[in-house]
Amino acid sequence: MALLQHTAAASSNASVVSIPAQYTYLLPGNFTGDPIYSFANGTSTTEPSVNNLLADAAQAPFISFDQEFLDLLGPNPTPHLIEQRSSNFAGEAGVWIKERGEVWYTTWINDGPTHIEILNLTDNSIRRPNISEPIENPNGGFYHQGLVYFTSLRVVTDISSSGGVVSVDPETGHVEQVLNSYMGLKFDSIDDVAWVTQPGTNKSYMYITILPFTILGDSPLPVDRLPQGIWRFDPQEQVLLPVISRTDLPVANGVRPSPDQKHLYVTDFGGDGHAAAWGLPAQVGSPSVYKYDLDDEMYPVNRRVIASARMQAPDGVRVDNKGRLWTGEGEGVVVRNRHGKVIGIFNAQYFTRDAVNVAVVQFALAGDDLIILGQDKLWRVKLAEMVVTVSS
User: In 123-279, at which residue ranges do the beta strands (DSSP E only) sit?
Assistant: First the structure.
């Protein structure tokens, strides 16, 4: 097979490395791939020129597979490091509040109790919100009708801990509990949250993802546990119900609606190498992104796989105004077109200190900005187009 021509600087900026899309499904010569590492960093072939290209890509901030991604980046894409610390301070949420020019995010739960921080997009300053009461381990977040909603992760060893979902008024800092249980039983870990407004109505519904507890050492799991999956809260009828069971989604993680509010996207953090981390049998689940239609009663139906992660599993998910799918994965922030083709990657090898052990799990789309939560680093990348226009 003739080798496809490649360039290490497909745009005028050498920070972009372009890889032929054909290499994602047809490599020349003999090759090996290691799923522990990224496509660029974990693939080796018998063709020196291909290996050199992949080595260049492994060190670049931007990896392109399609002209659409180059157009999205513009002629001179530049990653801007806003802040770096010794701790993993930029971990989860990634909530854009358009009218305030802010991105709210949370710290990393693996390092201990979490808190909320706010990035001011005008001057890149960072502060913590002045809130009316403490929030226990805030994690996932979503902006809806003037309030920021955060999931609150339950502390398994604390009998008084319930977790749940809270709202924060960004103007006043007032905190209010939205939910914390179902019929007196506690959820394992509510990881992410999203609101969807039914088209043509003023009815909104809240969807939450539930992660399973894992056994830590000799600590027994609590018995007051509800099954993981996707649950929906209907504030109009005051009803909280599971709408996607753990049979369909063993490790439901990120959740977001489409811009037209007609579809729901959910990531599954299961599959080989991941299921065991949640106390599940091997080969349970799939490191994939699922798309659901929302029916006339706003229930998710017609599930189909629209993306699968190569390295680790997808976590945070967003859909932009052109229907492109953005996910936080082991590879980094991966961008796919509406057909599921990977068109480009914001490379975790560049944006984190350790792409294998410290992944990019969340990010924020903020107009024509991408905010990358790189754990110990917070990044801002100016895009060449307005990818979203509504806060979320």
Answer: 126-127, 138-144, 147-152, 164-168, 175-179, 189-197, 204-211, 229-234, 239-245, 252-257, 263-268
Contacts (Cβ under 8 Å, ≥6 apart) of 101? 120, 121, 122
Query: Per residue in 260-271, pLDDT tens?
Result: 999 999 998 655
Phi/psi region, residue 137 (left: phi>0; alpha: psi -120 to 50; beta: rest), is left
Residue 22 region, left (φ>0) first, then alpha (ψ -120 to 50), else beta? alpha
For 40, half-sphere exposure in the C-beta direction (CA atoms, 13 angstrom radius) is 31
DSSP H/E element including 54: helix 48-59
| pLDDT band with cut points at 50, 70 and 90 for residue 284 | low
Predicted pLDDT of residue 12: 40
Question: Phi first, then psi: what are they for 278, rounded to 5°?
Answer: -105, 15
N-terminal to C-terminal alpha carbon distance within the chain: 46
Q: Tell me how far apart the alpha carbons of residues 166 and 6 are, in angstroms, rounded to a whole number.
A: 50
Tell me the mean pLDDT in the region 231-239: 97
The pLDDT of residue 213:
60
The encoded tokens of residue 322 equal 């052109």
The DSSP secondary-structure symbol of 155 reads -
Q: Which CATH superfamily is domain 82-382 in?
A: TolB, C-terminal domain (2.120.10.30)
How many other C-beta atoms are found inside a 10 Å radius of the C-beta of residue 5?
7
Q: Which conformational region is residue 340 in: left (phi greater than 0), alpha (psi within -120 to 50 degrees), or beta?
A: left
Torsions phi, psi for 126 (to 5 deg)? -125, 135
Q: What residue ranges do the domains of the chain occupy?
A: 82-382
43, two tokens: 């693939």
